[in-house]
Amino acid sequence: MATALLHYAAAAVTDRGRKRPSNEDAFGFSVEHGVYVVCDGMGGAAAGEIASSLAVDEMLRVLTCRVPGVVASLEAAAEEAIRAANTAIFSRALRNYKLNGMGTTLVGLLVEESRVLVVNVGDSRCYRLRHACLEQITLDHSLVEEQVRLGRMTPAEALRSSLRNVITRALGTQNCVTPDLFALEAEAGDLFLLCTDGLTRELSDPVIESLLSVHLPLEELCERLVTAAKKAGGHDNITCILVQALE
Fold this sequence. Notes:
By secondary structure, the chain is of the alpha+beta class. Helix content is 32%, strand content 28%. A five-stranded antiparallel beta sheet has the order 1-10-9-6-7.
C-alpha cells in the first residue's frame, strides 16, 4: 500500500515575558521549504538578540536554497546550515569586542515528505505530540540535565539547582560546534513543538501535553502555551513554533 504524502502547517508566537526588558529569542520558518527554527540568544547588551537573529537568518538562507533530494541529504544540509550560522556569529563577535562571547541555542525541524530531522544545540527543545501523548525529542545541552542523565542528580534536584541556566553547548561561542541530529518518520496528525526554555522552565511536560491535546487552530495553541507560561511566572522570553503533519 502506498504511503500518503504529507504536507505541513505551522504557526509561531514569541513574547518578551513578564520580567525581561527585551526579547532575545528569534524564530523563522518556511513551510514551502520545510524549515523551522527557534533560537534563544545570550550575551550582554543586544548581543543575544544579534546572535539569535543571525542564526535564524543563516539557517533559512542555507536551507531554503537546497533542492530536496538533489543538493544534499537532510543531515548534510542541516550540518552545513549549522556551520554557516556558527561562523556568522563567531566572526561577528571577533569584529566587535562589545559582542564578545555572544551565542545562542538553536532547535530546528527539517521536513521532506514523511522524513523529519530535528537539530539542536543548547537547551531549546523539540517535542512531538502523537495520539495525545507528548514525547521530548531533543536532549538539553545543559549542566544539570547532563548530570541527571549521568545519574548524579535527580530531576527534582535539577529543577531546584542554581546552575539551571548553565548550558554546555551553544552556537557561536566557539569556532565550531557539533549539533545533535534526530531522524524521525512523521505520521498524519503529528504535532511538533519547537520552543525556548522560557516555556519549558514554566510549564511541565504534562501541562504542555494537556494544552496541546485539544482541537484548535495552531495559532490559538501557540497563544495558549505562551499565556500559560506567562501566568506561571514569565521569567524569560517565550517562543514556540507548532508544526503539524497533514494528509
